[in-house]
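Hi! If you just cloned this repository, the fastest way to understand the data is to look at a raw example. We've pasted two of them here, unedited. The first protein comes first, obviously.
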Amino acid sequence: MIRRYFISDDLDDLEAIEHELEAKGIDTPQIHVLSEQDAEVELHHLHEVSPVLKSDVVHSTEVGAVVGVILAAVVLLVAYFSGWTDTAAGWVPFIFLAIVVLGFCTWEGGFIGIQEPNIHFKRFQQVLSEGKHVLFIDIEPAQEAVVKKVVRRHPKLQNAGTGEAAPGWVVRAQIYFKRFVKAMP
């Protein structure tokens, strides 16, 4: 999948675009509007970006976990090569310390990330602070023509490039979950 970004200052236009895309077979979980005006986005019934995804918490937690795994391995290696594991205490305190180091680094990464804008949206901070909105659409290559056709009918929409999309399996899971919820009585 690929992510297409567009900028607009007209939520009515974005609402029309979202309806057109959905009518042409692009599912709602593929379409998002990033804005600092969350209440206005909700009033227009647009699929907004959740607050947790506006921050860099997911990416930073992953980075923290990688750092934690490395440091935990260092703790275990130092304990082994220093001969500390040959004492009466054995491996237990060092394994416990490695788990604590891993947990702390993961937590700290998430804590840092929650204070930062999402790494994929940093380039739009200036545009968002000007009161504009970012529409992004995660599409399969076969859907490219549909998006181009809809976008051509909306001259106020500015192309803002491409980026890394959500994994296809995540989008499909959201689509199937939405269908499942609708089927419930």
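Ok, and the second one:
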Amino acid sequence: MSTEPRRDRLDQPVEPGRVRLPRLNPETFGRWSEAIARGMGTAQFIVWMTMVIGAWFAWNTLAPADLRFDPYTFTFLTLILSLQASYAAPLILLAQNRQADRDRLAMEEDRRRAAMQKADTEYLAREIASLRIAMGEVATRDFLRSELARLADELDEAALRREKRARMEWEDERS
């Protein structure tokens, strides 16, 4: 017995009532619909559409009666514009849905990044606070300078006292 699925076998009849529609890649169709919607949303499209409709009106009103293809009521033009609108609306909606999905993903990514930045900022704020507390326990540059200056003064005073004592002893020995 064959392991092939029934639908791929040519020696078996197709089940009645099943219509097989072509399978389209949704991503490809979505990009295609976005390209159409992007094109229809331009001034160039409006200008070209206006020119085509103007040419249609001009041809079907000014041309000889036997060359006109759409009589005065412009039924065929109405049909073409309705057909365009019936395809344009779903394509535009599909493009908008895809854009909304992209915007949602971008917003989620922005939220994630903002949460990470907030956590990093809070961490850095805690680190700075702990450094400030630790700096209260550590000698600062100004404190060290003042202590060194005080010690230098004390050493100078001690040197002056020794010098005076040595001078007094020298004078006592001389006298």
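That's it. A detail worth noticing about the second one: The chain has a mean pLDDT of 87.
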